[in-house]
Design goal:
It is built from four helices and six strands. It has a six-stranded mixed sheet with strand order 1-2-6-5-3-4. It is globular.
């Protein structure tokens, strides 16, 4: 039995009208980034840096705008992980994506603030 065995991220489910998303911790995200199988979106405004391997930067309050929808995966089953500075903007963006029919949304709880607090890097 290896104590350092990383268990897959399961997240904490947040249920809304019309669907749900999962809140994940910074440690769960760190594990997920090792075998990245998702679209990683920074929704924080104003821009305050990125976590490595970020795919897109889309303002949280404009994620449903036509010009931003065209950047999002066409397949609504695609796993999407959202983050911002503290987790609040990304939670709003997660709700918006669920309204748009996406069903595999993950949100970094605590955002970049917690990511840095545990010693991970932010790319400025």
């Amino acid at each position: 039995f290896a104590a350092c065995q990383s268990k897959p991220a399961t997240g904490e489910t947040v249920t809304l009208d019309g669907g749900s998303y999962k809140n994940i911790s910074v440690d769960e995200l760190n594990v997920m980034l090792k075998n990245k199988d998702f679209v990683f979106i920074n929704v924080h405004i104003p821009f305050a840096g990125n976590i490595a391997d970020t795919d897109l930067s889309i303002p949280y309050d404009q994620i449903g705008a036509p010009e931003n929808l065209s950047q999002l995966p066409a397949d609504k089953n695609t796993k999407i992980v959202l983050y911002c500075r503290s987790g609040r903007m990304s939670a709003i963006a997660a709700e918006e994506l669920i309204k748009l029919g996406y069903i595999n949304i993950w949100n970094l709880k605590g955002g970049m603030v917690e990511w840095e607090q545990v010693g991970y890097e932010i790319e400025k």
